[in-house]
Design goal:
50% of the residues lie in helices and 8% in strands. The chain has 516 residues and is of the alpha/beta class. The protein has three domains: 272 residues, no CATH class; 162 residues, Rossmann fold, CATH 3.40.50.300; 54 residues.
């Protein structure tokens, strides 16, 4: 009877040993470096490692049908963790009765390490602001799919799934499929089974020698559980929205599916969507300096801007060099209204897919440091556009922009340039001497390495612009006659210096009510 009990317990211990050994092998394979949160990672790994050692030791002690007195005493020492913690030094020596408060103990018993693991896991879970899917440990594992720092996730944040190399995909697929094994591993269940087996051994030892009962402490240690975890701050948590809800939905799908490798593309698409700069190309700035996307911006094309070939080419050449990583200049674009300055900057988006525009108002110049902190780590390149730039006499706020360009306080990151647009050559108003603004009023414009001038179109260019818009709107009336009519229309509407915008607006009137 005793022999059968020993064999049965030995078989159970051997089964637990193999299970824990497998998880430790997976842990070592998936996390050879300190990737996980330190507390959770350390105590989870330590508890499993200690379990593996204890199972191995128990298996050695009860592998014989007949237990020697020495084996019985050793077993009694092993099962003592049911009633009190056990402390071991760096050499594995039991120092429970001789330890001092200043002692350095590399290992505790498995139950103590498990308690520490659960305590730290619960503490971490209390800090989470997202919905917990599954148990806190399962949710922790699920979060690793999205937060773990690795080549696949880094590329997924920057590129569509189709652009990621096959070897990188295969490596990540192996990782997440094996992560599922860790996800299924129930350390709490293993600990409870272990405790049951230790109690069986304890009963067997008492049966072999009733005197051992007197040595057993009348105390049972607490076995914590987080399976029914509920945050005391749950009612105060921020409700997940947008991508947060999408992640929760994906985590719930993974919770009920064992083939995590099939979700590689889904995970990649989610990560790609996390990077706002992947999804939108034009941004504005709020009161606090936060970027928000302009989802419906007007697209312009350089072919819609008739004339100004030299100016357009300068903008293209400089911006392409900037995208290529060259050390290029900030650009000042000036000229009368309606000549195509802003349209030409917007048209750069059509030609250059990797370019991003940030539209700022002149009074937002003090927010440049905040803006740059949001974009400096991005692989995209940004043109920060100040449109309608002008400062009244005595307005000193232009100095914020001037200082940013000079790098007096904070240098612009390498992936950003400033393109300023103004209606006059000198956007800071001030006194003049012999037709030139003097002193600090020249300072802002002179900080730009390149100046691009858009003047009012000459008669030939105006005719070309009119012909272009007539053709675009399927109007087949004579251009020369309409040019004369356009000049009269400009006088009627107080357009003193007719420009391309005026011509476009004039053609709109022809579509509504043809003019004689």
């Amino acid at each position: 009877m005793k022999e059968e009990a020993i064999k049965r317990i030995h078989k159970k211990i051997k089964g637990l040993y193999k299970k824990v050994q497998l998880q430790n092998a997976i842990l070592d394979d998936l996390f050879p470096k300190d990737i996980l949160s330190v507390d959770i990672k350390n105590f989870f790994r330590l508890a499993n490692t200690r379990l593996e050692r204890e199972f191995l030791r128990l298996g050695e002690l009860i592998q014989s049908d007949n237990l020697s007195q020495e084996s019985i005493q050793a077993l009694f020492d092993e099962i003592s963790i049911l009633h009190r913690p056990k402390y071991l030094d760096g050499d594995g020596k039991d120092v429970t009765l001789t330890k001092t408060s200043s002692g350095d103990f590399e290992w505790n018993d498995s139950l103590t390490l498990y308690q520490e693991f659960q305590k730290n896991l619960e503490k971490k879970a209390e800090e989470w602001s997202h919905e917990v899917v599954g148990t806190p440990f399962q949710d922790y594992i699920l979060e690793l799919l999205f937060k773990d720092d690795n080549p696949f996730n880094k590329k997924a944040l920057r590129h569509p799934y189709s652009k990621i190399g096959e070897s990188t995909k295969e490596e990540r697929k192996h990782f997440i499929q094996n992560l599922r094994h860790l996800f299924d591993y129930d350390l709490e269940e293993v600990i409870n089974s272990y405790i049951d087996h230790l109690k069986e051994i304890e009963s067997l030892l008492i049966l072999l020698d009733p005197n051992y009962k007197e040595q057993i402490l009348d105390y049972s240690r607490f076995v914590p559980s987080t399976k029914k975890f509920s945050s005391i701050e749950s009612s105060a948590r921020d409700k997940t929205k947008g991508l947060g809800q999408e992640k929760t939905k994906l985590k719930k799908l993974l919770l009920s599916d064992i083939e995590w490798g099939n979700y590689l593309e889904v995970v990649a698409n989610y990560l790609y969507g996390l990077n706002m700069f992947n999804l939108f190309r034009v941004y504005q700035v709020d009161f606090w300096g936060n970027l928000f996307p302009v989802k419906d911006y007007i697209e312009y094309h350089f072919e819609d801007i008739i004339g100004y070939e030299k100016q357009k080419q300068t903008l293209k050449t400089e911006t392409r060099a900037f995208l290529a990583g060259e050390d290029t200049n900030n650009i000042f674009i000036y000229g009368p209204p309606g000549t195509g300055k802003s349209s030409s900057v917007n048209a750069l988006l059509t030609d250059l897919n990797e370019l991003r525009l940030i539209l700022m108002e002149k009074h937002q110049a003090p927010l440049l440091e905040t803006i740059c902190s949001q974009i400096k780590e991005s692989h995209y390149r940004f043109i920060i556009v100040f449109d309608e730039l002008s400062y009244a006499e005595g307005d000193q706020s232009y100095k914020h922009l001037q200082e940013a360009m000079e790098g007096v306080v904070h240098k612009l990151p390498d992936n950003s340039r400033i393109y300023a647009i103004a209606n006059t050559r000198y956007p800071v108003m001030g006194r003049e001497e012999r037709g030139e603004r003097i002193g600090s009023y020249n300072a802002l414009a002179d900080r730009f390495g390149i100046k691009v001038h858009f003047d009012v179109p000459d008669a030939k260019t105006k005719r070309e612009i009119l012909a272009y818009y007539l053709q675009k709107n399927n109007i087949t009336r004579p251009v020369d006659k309409l040019m004369n009519d356009f000049e009269r229309w400009c006088q009627e509407n107080d357009h003193l210096k007719p420009n391309g915008r005026n011509i476009r607006d004039y053609v709109k009137t022809l579509r509504i009510e043809p003019r004689e």
